[in-house]
């Protein structure tokens, strides 16, 4: 019996092998066994991924942060061991020292407002990075609002509720006496509040006594349980996460208060005065439940969303006020605790990584239930999720990139309106370490041969760590390749000729002269379909023996296509479709090509055909029709 199956799209992406028995699912028809180094279009086609353009050598591994000053000026901040480098349009414009070491960079969190970036880490005083001009940037400590010597910062009582403090006087320099051990050497320089009046600790005499300078006249000199100390300090730790929501700054957790939230006064971002609980005053509360809820991220979406080590929460109130605020736990997934992987917004949903590192969850508000749900977008491609360390969303191309702990890069094509969630996996001669989307550009940190490089996806390139050059007169020697010193590279000359060469003294020598070159590291893209599921008179049980007769590929702007139907990779000769000279660049081809095959397939894990090529030329497959014979 002869049958023809038509694959019209790849919108289910690469699927796990445990899906091989689910030929009844729509995802099976639209999925593939392997999709490597390709991007899937939201409408279904699959293309060789863009190459990576070399931008600069980084000082070392670290994190990438996008900074948008306005619609015309965007920047890339490269954070490495105790340093920040600033790039605009792939050119470094500034650099300055930073307090975070390499290990601490895993736990930093950040948020931006106007020309200011706030960066926090639970062991390092929070910093404010400000752009003063295109090439001038500064970093300073946070400064909370101060009036008449009183600092309006978050406070908390770390001692038991029944512990009292008694001042020796109401003004001047006083002695504070505690009813239980309270004072530590680290309290020197910190502020306490006694019945809402501030004092500054100057000397710690013992665990129960300290000397303080009164900043506000104290209410009285009696022992009182109404006292607290500043919540953010070297002794108690610093913020874990931060964001802006409804014109308030939100601090989510500290080292010693991991489940506590603070919200600043409305329109006064560094003022955390609780006052009398008026609508515009600051808000403070803890996340209390039957499980640990160490805050890992706070995110401003439809509501204020709080991601903790054990659950996800919704903070509602329109607007948020001390009297109207409501806190409700939504789901119980949890977020990683050994690193910060920032949640991202995708069409109104918040995508985040689960605590076990195996799920990419979509935190989405369901109007029917009036609650959030956490759907796992990686359910059908679990083998690709390997302890993610970074992620970001390229909204223009609808590509959600996830940097994995093993150095690979997973990409999900997300088009929720059409229920498209399609995974692919990318690798390079090295390891992906960090990622950031700056406007329409996707930057990555890549570790190669012991060095860290800043690179950018570029649709005009089909090689990695690549540079291109032009010369008014053809030549053989091309330089400027110091970042690839001693490395064997691939050369695409004048759009068609291919050579391999080793970089020496930052240059390569071609066999023949060329006026335009693209030089970089090759990568191989692979496309393998799932085994066909054919309905016969006896059903579609496993074990059906099939033979591929021929396959039709519908292509778009493709310059190279290497197909294997069981007899090895066969390049499709696109030059025959045009009239170009033999050594000229191949023309882009759009249309249908056909390849015939022989031989029966008995191994269910072997595809009927596959595409595998490292030729640095465009390749886009829109659809595939396979004509097969089925054994009786």
Key features?
single chain; 632 residues; mainly beta; Elongation Factor Tu (Ef-tu), domain 3; 7-stranded antiparallel β-sheet
Explain what the structure shows.
It is built from one helix and 55 strands. Among the domains are: 2-50 and 530-630, Sandwich (Jelly Rolls); 155-230, Elongation Factor Tu (Ef-tu), domain 3 (Beta Barrel), CATH 2.40.30; 464-521, no CATH class. It is elongated. A hairpin with a 3-residue loop joins strand 29 and strand 30. Strands 1, 5, 6, 49, 52, 53 and 55 form a seven-stranded antiparallel sheet that branches. It has a seven-stranded antiparallel sheet with strand order 18-24-21-22-23-20-19, with no helix packed on it. A five-stranded antiparallel sheet has the order 4-48-54-50-51, with no helix packed on it. By secondary structure, it is mainly β.
Question: Quick gist of this model?
Answer:
The chain is an all-beta fold and 632 residues long.
Unreliable residue stretches: 575-582
> Looking at CATH, which topology of the domain at 2-50 and 530-630 would you report?
Jelly Rolls
Helix count equals 1
Mean pLDDT equals 92
What class would the helix/strand composition place it in?
mainly beta
Approximately what portion of the residues adopt beta-strand conformation? over 45%
């Amino acid at each position: 019996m002869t049958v023809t199956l038509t694959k019209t799209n790849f919108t289910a992406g690469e699927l796990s092998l445990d899906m091989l028995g689910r030929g009844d699912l729509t995802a099976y028809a639209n999925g593939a066994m392997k999709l490597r180094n390709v991007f899937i279009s939201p409408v279904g086609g699959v293309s060789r991924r863009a190459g990576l353009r070399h931008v600069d050598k980084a000082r070392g591994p670290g994190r990438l942060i996008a900074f948008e000053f306005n619609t015309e000026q965007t920047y890339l901040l490269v954070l490495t061991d105790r340093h920040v480098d600033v790039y605009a349009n792939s050119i470094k414009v500034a650099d300055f020292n930073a307090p975070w070491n390499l290990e601490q960079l895993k736990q930093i969190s950040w948020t931006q407002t106007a020309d200011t970036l706030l960066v926090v880490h639970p062991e390092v005083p929070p910093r404010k990075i400000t752009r003063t001009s295109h090439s001038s940037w500064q970093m300073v400590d946070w400064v909370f609002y101060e009036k008449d010597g009183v600092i309006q910062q978050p406070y908390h009582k770390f001692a038991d509720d029944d512990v009292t403090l008694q001042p020796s006087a109401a003004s001047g320099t006083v002695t504070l006496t505690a009813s239980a051990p309270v004072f530590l050497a680290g309290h020197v320089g910190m502020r306490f509040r006694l019945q809402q009046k501030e004092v500054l600790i100057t000397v710690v005499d013992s665990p129960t006594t300290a000397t303080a300078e009164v900043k506000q006249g104290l209410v009285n000199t009696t022992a009182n349980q109404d006292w607290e100390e500043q919540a953010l300090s070297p002794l108690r730790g610093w913020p874990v996460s931060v964001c802006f929501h409804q014109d308030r700054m939100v601090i989510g957790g500290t080292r010693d208060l991991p489940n506590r939230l603070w919200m600043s006064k409305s329109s006064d971002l560094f003022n955390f005065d609780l006052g009398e609980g008026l609508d515009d005053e600051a808000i403070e509360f803890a996340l209390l439940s039957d499980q640990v809820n160490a805050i890992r991220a706070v995110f401003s979406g439809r509501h204020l969303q709080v991601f903790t080590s054990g659950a996800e929460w919704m903070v509602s109130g329109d607007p948020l006020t001390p009297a109207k605020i409501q806190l409700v736990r939504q789901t119980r997934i949890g977020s990683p605790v050994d690193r910060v992987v920032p949640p991202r917004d995708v069409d109104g949903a918040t995508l985040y990584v689960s605590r076990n590192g195996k799920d990419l969850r979509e935190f989405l508000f369901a109007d029917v239930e009036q609650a959030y749900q956490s759907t796992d977008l990686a359910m059908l491609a679990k083998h690709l999720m390997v302890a993610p360390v970074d992620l970001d969303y390229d909204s223009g191309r609808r590509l959600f990139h996830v940097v994995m702990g093993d150095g690979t890069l997973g990409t999900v094509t997300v088009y929720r309106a059409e229920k498209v969630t399609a995974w692919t996996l990318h690798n390079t001669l090295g390891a992906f370490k960090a990622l950031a989307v700056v406007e329409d550009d996707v930057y990555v940190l890549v570790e190669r041969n012991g060095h860290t490089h800043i690179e950018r996806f570029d649709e005009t390139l089909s090689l990695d760590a690549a540079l291109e050059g032009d010369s008014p007169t053809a030549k053989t020697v091309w330089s400027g390749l110091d970042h690839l010193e001693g490395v064997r590279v691939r050369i695409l000359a004048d759009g068609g000729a291919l050579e391999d060469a080793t970089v020496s003294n930052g240059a390569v020598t071609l066999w023949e002269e060329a006026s335009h070159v693209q030089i970089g590291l090759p990568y191989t893209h692979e496309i393998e379909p799932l085994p066909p599921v054919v309905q016969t008179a006896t059903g579609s049980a496993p074990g059906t023996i099939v033979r591929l007769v021929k396959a039709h590929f519908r292509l778009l702007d493709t310059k190279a296509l290497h197909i294997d139907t069981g007899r090895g990779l066969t390049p499709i000769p696109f030059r025959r479709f045009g009239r170009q000279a033999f050594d000229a660049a191949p023309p882009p081809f759009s249309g249908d090509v056909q390849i015939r095959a022989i031989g029966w397939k008995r191994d269910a894990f072997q595809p009927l055909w596959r595409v595998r090529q490292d030729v640095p030329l465009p390749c886009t497959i829109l659809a595939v029709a396979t004509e097969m014979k089925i054994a009786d």
